[in-house]
Amino acid sequence: MKLRKLIGSNPVILALLLTSFTPGANAETQINYKLLVGEWSPPGQCNHSRMVYTADGYVQGLWNSNNQWSKMFSTPGTYKPIPQGFIIYNADGAEFRRIYIKKLTTSTLHFNGSNNTAEEIHQKCPTR
Fold first, then answer.
1. What is the CATH number of the domain that holds 118?
2. Parallel, antiparallel, or unpaired: how do β-strands 38-41 and 49-53 relate?
3. With CB atoms 3.0 to 4.6 Å apart as the test, which of 7, 50, 76, 86 could cross-link to 62 if both were Cys?
4. Contact by Cβ (8 Å): 103, 97
5. pLDDT (0 to 100) of residue 77
6. Domain residue limits at 103
7. pLDDT digits (tens, 9 = 90+) for 37-75
8. Using CA atoms, how far apart are residues 118 and 110, in angstroms rounded to an integer?
9. What is the per-residue pLDDT for 96?
10. pLDDT tens digit string along 69-106?
């Protein structure tokens, strides 16, 4: 009963639990989603644009113009973990993009997009 109160209706926590205990999954396929929380950008772009992932499932796109940060988009609950990655959703709840994580550390995120795009590397940005 206590676990049900903890999970509640939060799909992010439920997905994290499900992917953490996937039968047959090995340490190489496990993703520590706590490392995703923060601000990320392609190398050398932290002063221009950032993707922000929060612990409660929000994702934001930020753009810097003349030292003023503005939101390109922000929608609650727009990323949800799946095995080996996560899905980003549009404001209307439709799937926008699947991200398949190749490697996630405290400082780098290596991933492919849903269309077998080339591997991208993002770095964790310093606090603004």
1. 2.40.128.280
2. antiparallel
3. 50
4. no
5. 53
6. 2-124
7. 999 999 999 999 999 988 888 888 899 999 999 988 766
8. 10
9. 78
10. 998 876 655 688 888 888 888 767 778 788 889 899 99
pTM recorded for the entire structure: 0.69
SS3 labels along the chain? CHHHHHHCCCHHHHHHHHHHCCCCCCCCCCCCHHHHCEEEECCCCCCCEEEEECCCCCEEEEEEECCEEEEEEEECCCEEEECCEEEEECCCCCEEEEEEEEEECCCEEEEEECCCCCCEEEEECCCC
Count up the domains in the chain and report the number.
Answer: 1
Residue type, 49: S
β-bridge partners, 40: 51, 124
